[in-house]
Known about the structure:
single chain, alpha/beta, Rossmann fold, four-stranded parallel sheet, two-stranded antiparallel sheet, 6 strands
Amino acid sequence: MFFGLMSNSPRASPLRLPIFSAGAMAFFGQDCLLCTGASERSIVCAACEHALARPSAGCAICAVALPQPGLCGECQRRAPAYDAALAAFDYRFPLDRLVQRFKFSGDLAVGRWLARRLLERVRAEPRPDLIVVPPLARGRLRKRGFNQALVVGNVIGRALGVRCARGALTKLRDTAPQPGLGWRERRANLRNAFRCDAAFSGERIALVDDVMTTGATADTLARLLKRAGAGRVDVWAVARTPDPAGR
């Protein structure tokens, strides 16, 4: 498994893969996007899905990988504004190829598949009063054509019967790309980049995103939501970077 179209070679790119979306391919009979074997009507076969890395022991607050459950050193020194985080997968090969195909190639069928995996992870959690997603700046949204976090949030919201408040947060400006930046650099990059356009009165909010790396964006947004009156903010991510660099 994990060979074929989704090669781990640095030259391989999911951006060149689809002529048809994964959803359209499923109409004609589906091959697994990861191993190219038969997968019936699913875009990822059962064997490859079972082999995808999932978080094990982690920090009780930020969900970063730890040798055993507890609190990581960063959360002990400075707890983030959000109350807890969880993820369906570790952000590593080959799951990263699926996320990139969804995010940068606009394959919404892959996005919905990822969202349903997150849904399976959060069904046992206390139901939030509201789902909120990180916004994109207008220029980025125009270029990409969609907000990947909103796609995930809508799937989760419809399944749980919880409203996804797409206008609760606004991104005021484009920020420098976050990959390669450490936690403190990300915080500085995000300063004054967002605005909360809603008022709350103690609601429990799920902040839904595709990938959580250092948690700087989640921390920034949770701080804004709590200033606006949110009682609790939980971060639900499709994938979590197990050992984010630069923390």
